[in-house]
Amino acid sequence: MAVLKIAARRRTASPVRGALRIGWLVLLLFGSPAAWTAPATPALASQIEAVFLFNFTQFVEWPSEAFAEPRTPLVIGVLGEDPFGAFLDDTVRGETVNGRALSVQRYHSLEEIKTCHVLFISRSETERLKEALAALKGRSTLTVSDVEDFNRSGGMIQFATVENKIRLRINLEAARSAHLTISSKLLRPAEIVGGGKD
User: Fold this and answer.
1) Which of 150, 153, 156, 196 minimizes the C-alpha distance to 176?
2) Residue ranges of the alpha helices (H) in 80-167?
3) 8 Å CB contact between 7 and 24
4) What's the pTM value of the predicted model, to 2 decimals?
5) How far apart are CA 95 and CA 13, in angstroms?
6) Annotation: CATH topology of 2-190
7) Residue 16, helix vs strand vs coil
8) Using CA atoms, how far apart are residues 145 and 75, in angstroms rounded to an integer?
9) CB neighbours (10 Å) of residue 131?
10) Got the DSSP string for 66-81?
11) Long-range Cβ contacts of 95-103 (<8 Å, 24+ apart)
12) What's the number of CA atoms in the CB half-sphere (13 Å) around residue 55?
């Protein structure tokens, strides 16, 4: 399993990142609910979300046309205010998925987004959320956010805090319409929702 290889390869990783990856591994192996105890600080919550973004790249398949060339990097983007800082860059540094390097890009506007495979839409973009999702329609971009009701607006993966736990909510219909295939290993512990329904 890819996560096992990561755990073995990155023994020198930071203790926080290592613990988060081990937690993800336990989540996948034992099928526990997709929930983390909510961290005491927003900074730690952002670190957990950054590790999830990295792990999503291993459990989602993009169509071949989403990449210009066989070695085109897989891009993780952040639209709006960046809650992750250098932690996201540190998390993906030196990693590859299916032979592709990972790259982190930050965008201040929709017009800047050219090639992006995983896009985290920041809370700073809440008022422009529907506009952002409409602009991405038809593109094979996995959209992720912790904005409330993100799934109802057509977003694909939402980080939701429920009873002091961070849970994943996945709008499978939205992902399929973007020609993305999400592994059952990711779907199994998540709450599956549809656009406009719980």
Assistant:
1) 156
2) 86-92, 129-135
3) no
4) 0.82
5) 12
6) Rossmann fold (3.40.50)
7) helix
8) 16
9) 11
10) GSSSTTPPEEEEEESS
11) 95/6, 95/54, 97/57, 97/58, 99/70, 99/71, 100/67, 100/71, 100/72, 100/73, 100/74, 101/71, 101/73, 101/74, 102/54, 102/57, 102/73, 102/74, 102/75, 102/76, 103/73, 103/74, 103/75, 103/76
12) 28
Q: Is 84 in contact with 77 (CB distance < 8 Å)?
A: no
Q: CA-to-CA distance for 79 and 144, rounded, in angstroms?
A: 10
pLDDT in tens, 136-150: 999 999 999 999 999
Provide the pLDDT for residue 26: 43
Residue in this structure with the two tokens 């929930």, named with its chain if needed:
35
Tens-place pLDDT, residues 178-193: 999 999 999 998 999 9
* CA pair distance 138, 125, nearest whole angstrom: 20
